[in-house]
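Sample A.
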Amino acid sequence: MTGVLCVAAMWAAVLAVGNQVKWWNNGSSEVASGEGETTSTGATTATPSPEPAGGSETMSLFAGSAVELVANRGSWNTIGCKLAPKGWTPESPIAAGRVVLSNPTDRAAKIVLESAAEARSLTSIRVTKSAGKTFHIGMLDKRLAGQVHLTDRWLLIELPAGNQDWNDELLQRFMASCAVN
C-alpha cells in the first residue's frame, strides 16, 4: 500500500510541476508550440565539445566531422559570425538579414543564415542551453537547421540537404559565434 501511494504521489508531483505534454509527447512537435521539447544544459552526444572560441583560438574540428570552423575575417552585413565553415564563401549580393554561403567544391550545397522577428517551426526539435542562450536544433524542409534568439531577433541557420558532415554540437557552436545587428 505504501509503494502505491509513493508512486501516486510521484506522478502527482510530475504532473503538477512539469508540463504534462513534455512527459507524454514523442518529441515530433514544432518549436513554436513548445511541446515535445527535450532540454539539456550541454552537449548530448559522446563526441567532445571544445569550449567556445576565445582569445587566439581560431579553429574547431569535431571528431568524425569533415566540417571545420575557422575564424571568419569577413563582414556579412547585419549578420556577423566569429566562426565560419572553412572554404565556404558568401554569395553576392549579401541581402540585409540574409546570407547564403556556398561551397566551392559543391556549388549546389548552401548554408543559409537568416535574421527574423519570429522563430520558424522546426520538427524533431532538440533544445540545449549554453552561455545564457537557448539553442533550438531540428529539421526544416528535410534540412538540419538551428535557431537561437539574439537580443530582439532570431537567427536561423539552415544546412545543406542530406549533409552528414554537420552535427548538433558543430551547428550550435557556429550559431553561438554569431550576432545580429
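Sample B.
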Amino acid sequence: MINYIQQLLPRIREYNSRLDKRELFVDKLFTLLQPNNEVHQYTFNRDGRLFLAINGVTTEGKWELLATGQLLINRGKNDIITLDFDFLHPDVLIMKLGGTVDNPFIIYRSDIIKDGNVLNFLKKFDAINKGEKIYELPNLIIYESELNDLILDENGKPFNGELTSPAEVLSYSLSVKHIYVLENGVIKAELYEVSYPYGFDDYVVVRQVDKYKITINDKLVISKSFLNSKKPDSQVTFAHKVFQFNEDYAITNIKNDGSGTVLIIVGVSIMALCIVLIMLAKNSAASSTSSDSYNVDSVSVEVVPADSTTTRAAADSMAY
C-alpha cells in the first residue's frame, strides 16, 4: 500500500492543507502505516511530550517543529529522527526521513480511517477535489479514467467480480449505483442498482440493465422487510407499477397499479369542475351588466321648463 501511496502523491500534493502544521497533529492520536502487524501509535502533546505506544506498550519521548520546517522526533535511547513533510491533511500526514526520497513515514488517524486503508481514503479525497468518478473493489478504489486499462486487484492480478460506484442521487426519491461486471480484468457487463421508496420508511433495490426504467429479467436485490416476508412467485407494488417475480427474484411481469388512471380521472374531474365554475361566473357577470343597461325604472328623467322668451320667438316664426 505504501508504494501505491507514493505513486498517488503527485496527484494530491496540490491539495496540501493550508492549516498550521502544528495544529494538524497536536493533541491527536496517530497510527503509523507499516507493512507488518505491529501497531505503532503516536500522540503529540502540545507541551512537546511524545507518547509512543507499540502494541500497547508506551514510552515517553519528545517532539519539536524545527525552524527548517522539519519535524524532530526523539523516541528515547538516542532514537532521534527528522522528518520532511510531503503531504499534509488533517487525517493523514505523509512524511519522509530527512534528506531521503524512498523512506516514507505515514501516520493517520485511526478514529477516522477505521479500516486502515489510507490509499482508498486518499483516492476518494483526490477524486472529490478533481470531480472524478470512482469505483470500489473490495479493498481498492479505481478511477473512472483507469477503466480502459486491465483492471488489477490489490495483489496485482486481473480482477474478477464487480466494480461499484458510490451511490448518487438520480432524482428526489431515487439513488443509483453504477456497476461493471469484470472477467479477467476486462469489463463484460454494465448494470445499475436503483433504490426505490417502498412504504413509509422502506425501500426496494432493483438491479437493472436500463438506468432509468425497470424491464423484464431485472432483479429485486434487497428490501429491509419485503424480501423477508414474501414468497417466490409473488408480486410487489412500487413506483406506480406491480412487479411479479420468480424464485430467483427476477421480474417476470410488469403492469400498472391503476394509481395513474385514478390520478388522471381526478385531474379531469377537477378541470371540468373549474370550467363549469368559470362559465357560471361569466354568465352571472353578463346578466348583471344587462340588468344595469335596460332597467327603465332605475333611470330618472329631469324635465327643464322652457324659457318664455324662447317660446314666444318660436311661435312668431311659426306664424309666418
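B remarks: DSSP finds six helices and 19 strands in the chain. Residues 133-222 form one domain.
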